[in-house]
Amino acid sequence: MVAENAEPSDRTIPKIVGTGFAESRGLRHGYIINQADVTRAIGQAIRQAEKTSGTRIKNAYLSVGGIGLSSITSTGTTAVSRADSEISELDVEKSLEASRAAIPQSFSINRRIIHTIPVQYRIDGKVVLGSKAVGMKANKLEAKVLFVTALENHLHDLIQAVEDAGVEVSQVIAAPLAASLVTLSKSQKIVGSVLANIGAETVSIVVFENNVPISLETFPIGSNDITNDIALGLKIPLEEAERIKLGAITGATYPKKKLDDIIEARLSDILELIEAHLKKIGRSGLLPAGIILTGGGSGISILEELAKSSLSLPSRVASMNWSGGMREPIKDASWSVVYGLCRIGLSQEDEESTLGVGIAKKARGTIRNLIRQLLP
Q1: Residue 367 parent element (H or E)
Q2: What is the pLDDT of residue 14?
Q3: Which residues are registered as beta bridge partners of 375?
Q4: What is each CA distance from 48 to 9, 18, 29, 54, in whole angstroms?
Q5: Helix (H, G, I), strand (E, B), or coil: what is residue 343?
Q6: GO CC annotations (predicted)?
Q7: If we measure between CA atoms, which residue out of 230, 205, 195 comes closest to residue 316?
Q8: Per-residue pLDDT at 10
Q9: For position 155, what pLDDT does the model report?
Q10: DSSP states of 232-297 as a string?
């Protein structure tokens, strides 16, 4: 997707000027199994986007998803360095580094950190109200940090495929965070919500509270599993099963109860995984803004109501929050990640109001170094 800034009145609103897409090939559960196929598919999408936008694409923002994407929360403590006990940026950096050092090796081995997100600060054991500790006075600073990571080999292969297609990767963003920029409002992030991206082969979730992500996880199950179940259960071709799943084929050709049972069974499996994760982090039934559904699989008709009853949370399909108070339905929820990437790419350098954008801008140098390390 190619975007540019349009400026009606005094607001900057991203405007989509071109799109390109291609059939996903060479991927399994979000990781590459055939590098050449993936590069060809990326190249095809790029050429189409260049044609529709009339723009030569040299750089791109890249989302990372798949089963290699995960997160861990870690806590680190440092003594305040200044004689007057005032917390400095250096102290904050030291607390973040201490948090990073505390990550168990069993989790960090073969992984790369792609986002470092402070969740909470404590000074002398007391919680800091707000997101900044700099300037306050204390003897000890403690940081609770969410680290979003990707498997190093998966990240290397994906970046290599994009580079082989002739495009330089400017930034790497976790797909659930990119989607959250255009599907969740600030109020939803503050009171507590979970964004679930129902992809073809994976389901990714990110949980927000107090306007920051507190957990992110990916599960190796997706809407393709529903298609496969329908094909097996009704003994029909996969292409026909896909159209039935999305409601494109209606009528009495197939027994409705059997079809509903097949779809509901697999959706229940997905929702059970989400519920288990919410229980693990102590947020089961405790997110007032509920679950927001996006991704290609979110269009399944019974999903919204089933999620509400299974998770005991408010449930709805995502609508796009493109800029400020402007809201409009996402015509195809599978594009929400790409919309988010466009927003990151077009954000002003000093924009800190939207979580994720500020992180991406600050991390740009780090990501470029990471890319150089990963590529031969």
Answers
A1: helix 364-374
A2: 63
A3: none
A4: 32, 8, 25, 10
A5: helix
A6: cell division site; cytoplasmic side of plasma membrane
A7: 195
A8: 41
A9: 94
A10: HHHT--HHHHHHHHTTSS-SSSS-HHHHHHHHHHHHHHHHHHHHHHHHHTT-TT--TT-EEEESGG
Classified as helix, coil or strand, 135 is: coil
* CB-based contact 182:320 (threshold 8 Å): yes
Chain position carrying tokens 């027994």? 255
**Residue (of 304, 251, 43) closest to 164 by Cα position:** 43
Output the pTM of the full model: 0.87
> What gap in Å lies between CA 245 and CA 259, rounded to an integer?
9
Question: How far apart are alpha carbons 200 and 185 in whole angstroms?
Answer: 25
pLDDT value, residue 366: 47
Instruction: Report phi then psi at 236, rounded to 5.
Output: -130, 165
Residue-range domains of the chain with CATH: 70-151 (3.30.1490.110)
CA distance linking residue 153 with residue 156, whole number of Å: 5
- Kindly report the number of other CB atoms within 10 A of residue 331's CB atom: 7
**pLDDT < 70 regions, the chain:** 1-14, 250-252, 321-333, 348-376
Task: Encode 209-218: b = buried (16+ Cβ within 10 Å), e = exposed.
Answer: bebbbbbbbb
> Length of the chain, please?
376
> For residue 296, which of 337, 248, 334, 336 has the smallest C-alpha distance?
334
CA proximity to 223, closest of 67, 64, 68, 29:
29
Phi–psi pair at 19, nearest 5 degrees: -135, 155
- Contact residues for 198 (Cβ-Cβ < 8 A; gap 6+): 222, 223, 270, 293, 294, 295, 296, 297, 298, 300, 303
Of the chain, the end-to-end C-alpha distance in Å amounts to: 28
